[in-house]
Here is the input.
Amino acid sequence: PKTIRREDYRQPDWIVPDVALDFDLGAERTVVRARLEVRRQAPAPLVLDGDGLVPVAVRVDGQATEAWRLDGGALVLDLPGDAHVVETEVALSPQTNTQLMGLYASGGLLCTQCEAEGFRRITFFPDRPDVLSRYRVRLVADKARYPVLLSNGDLVGSGDLDDGRHFAEWHDPFPKPSYLFAAVAGDLAERRDSFTTASGRTVQLGIWTRAEDRPRTAHAMESLKLSMAWDERVYGREYDLGIFNIVAVNDFNFGAMENKGLNIFNTRYILADPDEATDSDYDGIAAVVAHEYFHNWSGNRVTCRDWFQLSLKEGFTVFRDQGFSADLGSPAVRRIEDVRALRATQFPEDAGPLAHPVRPESYMEISNFYTATIYNKGAELIRMIHTLVGPGRFRQGSDLYFERHDGEAATCEDFVVAMEVGAQVDLTAFRRWYGQAGTPRVEARIARVEDGTVSLALRQSTPPTPGQPDKSPVPIPLRTALFDRASGARLAEQLVLLEDAEATVALGRAPGDVALSINRGFSAPIVLVADRATDELAFLAAHDDDPFARYEAVQGLMLEALVDRVASGDAGGAADAAVDAVGAMLADPALDDAFVAEAALLPSESFIGDQMLVVEPLAIHDAREWLRARIGRAHLAAWRERQERGANQPFAYTPEAKGRRRLRGVALAYLLAARDTDAAARALDQFQRADNMTDRFSALSALVGSDAAERETALDAFRVRHGGSPLVLDKWFGVQAGSSRSDTLETVVRLSRDPDFTLANPNRARALIGGFGANQLALHDDGGAGYRFLADQILQLDRLNPQTAARLVPPLGRWRRFGEARAAAMRAQLERMLRTPGLSRDLYEQVFRSID
Ligand code: B3K
Ligand code: ZN
Here is the structure.
């Protein structure tokens, strides 16, 4: 496959101001007729991208022509003038489209997915984000099978035809790139609502699902209305069309898609009721509904010039949805969750063979670049700008960005320039964050100068990443405070900006002993190496007034204990301090349950592994279980009380009740780890009596790693109760794939042959195969069979759905982090995959990059 480079960007030779599409829809066969008004921008032939398309007919200015050729799938025409009308006709087979890109069938529905390059699987077109067109779409289908016909924009006509067919015509007045095109046909039920914008326009809102799912769309609709109001209030952005529709589909490659006026969602991010969705599912729905809605401005009104600019829309939109979610619930807890996710996915990516800058330089397959780096690190860059300039100036910057680039295809540079001008800040050095991969490491150490001034010595370095051996310093904003150890008082908080490789900063005068609180709120996406003694961390765990920093201090104690335990079998004083810190939080009535639950959670096994030179999965697991048992036993009474608190109250969806449920789940896991006598019975009791999925599933999760008889009882009951609901069955597969039992590989192999398992559905494949890949203990268990199984599944899936297959590769790409035998066995599987004939471009690129 060939490599596409950012430096090779050229403006389009031809543009397409207007396009009319005519779909004659059917699952087995769909005919697409396209009419493109093309305008020349440069002396070159017209190249219309195509992927797997065969032209049935081609016309230029109304005349049939044979003067075309196919070049690597694209339709090439030499046209004489500067403006022509080009018409093409192709036939598609949605039913056999297992890639789920382009037009495909899901359940009884027909739907599209075009980002990034799926539109070329529907019709011949300059399928690049800098070609913006006005679309007119006519959909024709059998009325009984496909009573609902949706596309972007406004409905401008509909009616019946002969032979039981009907049609609908949609017109989208906003010019858009082809990746935002969407069409849906199916037997769908609507939840309808409306929203009145700040300027008084009424928008008709519709969420479309199968009829039986309609009752489970209330939370998504509520989230949509809150998002619309939030974007008006916080960013001054109003919705622009008369209609906003969302359709939920079962088979979808990722979370959702922001098509103009017609978002298409994975059912997972729409459907919820208390009996089937956990609180974190509810949160995920609110966040993704908001994210796709926010794209209407950050992505659709202002789109990307080319795919190297992907983070322009994704990083910014993640930052926006994080702000929305923070405002909905507890900002501190939300920040902790976001940082946990960053460390779980983006940090390892940035430290491994797939590391790439937020604005990449090259790719083979753009689908492989919808990564945690583009999304989550991209959001952290925006957050740093926000931190540097403050909310007011940030808003002036974002206003200017939207004003300047409305209707355009922009670049990351355009965003930075708009921020510089609008927020009055010099971001010259900050631009390096966009081009440099790798997570900076910051060493921080305080020293006392004679006159009582405390100074902070900082040093930054970024490890080499593939293709980037030498790194420059980046500007790192560090929210920093000192505490007086004797009184517990905070002495000062300041925003320290580390711009050079090294710097020393005076923090102020402090008479007595101090504790250093740094990178508060996780103000920069870095790895902090602060030379702090256990008792200093313990102090911060008890006294820091920044909840995130307090959480970090507790996690720091836990990590220290775990790393020591793995290294030497001993855990020094850090384990005792961690035990005490958790106890103190449990006893502190001022802390809310959600925060305590987050802070009491142990670092994940893979995050512990990330701290070590050579990852030892079993030793890590044992150390973690050992610390878990200690924390469990030390606070048995408190855990029991937290597990029971409010258990008999009926379900409520309030922040307090959510926090209580979260802590209940954590408490139950600690009770099981402590081998409290009745823990398994207690878990089964919670499982059986729960009137909601959060409590039921936290009980099941706690039991699934145990040998207790209650485990099978719960697993069986769960399947019987929820077997008819695909999303809940995904949980059943996933929880077993994540189990810490030694027979997990066997279980997963058996489940892969279960009649309810299929690789064709991405949610199901991710639950079982993705869940297994993320299970460090099980994947690396015997250093061979797990890798082979994972590689086999990836290869099988690649034949159906390359995009989803390629996303399962990263766990194997971490081979360098493991001991020799494991590394060799993992590499052998990567090599076997690479040798397999007929690999997709997606999988080839991921495997190829993972090998060296
Ligand atoms: N923009 C889409 C992602 C498309 C992924 C294509 N491989 C969803 C989102 O980020 O909102
Ligand atoms: Zn997005």
